[in-house]
Design a protein that fits this description.
- The structure is a single chain.
- The chain has 211 residues and is mainly beta.
- The chain is 6% helix and 33% strand.
- The protein has 2 helices and 11 strands.
- A 6-stranded antiparallel beta sheet has the order 2-3-4-9-8-7.
- The N terminus and C terminus are likely disordered.
């Protein structure tokens, strides 16, 4: 599997994507996870206004109220990482087996910085950084774009309703997320077909860099 990793600031996250608009959502977790810097709510991948570019979005720390959003920050010890499989190969599973080494390590190549930007503050116009290679990045608070009628969903599950209303009631209306948005020229992805994308959030217990 060929992978290309895009590191932005000191952040790390999971995306699943293919052609078109693909996303996954995970808003309500255990209290020990929700609203933490490592808590991923959504991942989106779609074509940019420039048809030659792709946009990768990772939203974290969901269910932020307007009052809490101003104080919400990215954790400097948490890295958000987009991973891209650009040759649509297959996944092979072996085991279960005992690993030779426990734990995971991510290596950050500090000589491969593509672009950087200041974090946009709540209520501020978006600050967008652009690199010499055409990569653009935004990081900051945004209204949660995910729409879901949780009340109606629970009614359907309980047998109290047979379908969703159209339109439904957005359970997440009025809540915010901290979003990381990266726009990348397709030429940098080295792929002419489907790509598979995932992201991860990892908290550093130490620091390892590759020059």
């Amino acid at each position: 599997m060929k992978k290309r990793k895009i590191f932005i600031t000191t952040l790390l996250c999971l995306v699943v994507a293919a052609a078109g608009i693909i996303y996954g959502a995970d808003h309500i977790d255990a209290p020990s996870v929700t609203n933490k810097p490592t808590d991923i709510t959504d991942v989106y991948v779609f074509r940019a206004e420039n048809p030659g570019n792709m946009v990768f979005v990772a939203n974290t720390q969901g269910l932020l109220t307007p009052g809490a959003t101003a104080d919400a920050t990215f954790d400097e010890n948490t890295m958000i990482e987009f991973n891209i499989d650009n040759n649509d190969d297959k996944m092979k599973v072996y085991g279960p087996a005992v690993p030779k080494v426990t734990g995971t390590i991510s290596y950050l190549n500090i000589n491969k910085l593509s672009v950087q930007t200041d974090i946009t503050k709540y209520g501020q116009d978006p600050l967008i950084g652009t690199g010499d290679n055409g990569v653009k990045v935004f990081a900051g608070p945004r209204d949660d774009p995910f729409f879901f009628d949780l009340v109606r969903f629970r009614q359907v599950i309980a047998g109290q309703a047979s379908s969703f209303n159209n339109p439904g009631n957005d359970t997440f209306a009025g809540t915010n997320v901290l979003g990381l948005v990266v726009e990348v020229p397709k030429s940098l992805l080295n792929s002419t077909g489907t790509i598979n994308v995932w992201a991860e959030t990892k908290t550093a217990t130490g620091s390892t860099t590759v020059n």
